[in-house]
């Protein structure tokens, strides 16, 4: 069973640019969530995708958008990058169930905006 | 006020010490309580989760939930240098999609 993978590992962009981050879910998982983790903080929920549809969103502006593909891989797109977007972006996959859905995290993509 | 407040640390203890990590929360809708461990430059990994008030033990780790006080704790017995990491508490409501995390406590266990 393969775990959650993310690419790229590191990324440096300048303010105003656009970026796409990628995530490959753990085998058998049908739900993917994206989190932003600023330095010294806990992860903050951006949004979740289930069956290729956005299934919940945190307090992030529309310039943060995503996609989920039929093979359950996912992308996070951020437009008009701002300095405060510098953070570790984490992808987590899970299987939606009634009681509990453990979220398995990938290693993250560290984005630096200059 | 944040929904989840976590003792910020950093915390430095000698090997073999008992470590206590704590979080408080304000949202009564939270039903699932988790502790994640995050090593430097890695994603969080789940250590323990609990659903109800009380204690849950797994090896050297004990998770404690007190819903009446909105307080959760993680105890690490016989701490080891390999336990050095950032510990994150996380919570979720019954029908909510997302996890709400504390800000993390950085723990260093000195040999």
In brief, what are we looking at here?
By secondary structure, chain A is mainly β. Chain A is built from no helices and 11 strands. In chain A, strands 2, 4, 5, 6, 9, 10 and 11 form a 7-stranded mixed β-sheet that branches. Chain A has a 4-stranded antiparallel β-sheet with strand order 1-3-8-7, with no helix packed on it.
| Structure class of chain A | mainly beta
Radius of gyration of chain A: 13 Å
Our count of helices of chain A gives 0
Order of helices and strands of chain A: EEEEEEEEEEE
Average pLDDT figure of chain B: 93
Low-confidence stretches of chain B: none
Uncertain segments of chain A of ≥5 residues (pLDDT<50)? none
Percentage of residues in DSSP E strands of chain A: over 45%
Oligomer: heterodimer
Summing up helix and strand content along with how strands pair, one would put the structural category of chain B as mainly beta
Report the span from N to C terminus of chain B. 37 Å
Rg over C-alpha atoms of chain B, rounded to the nearest angstrom: 13 Å
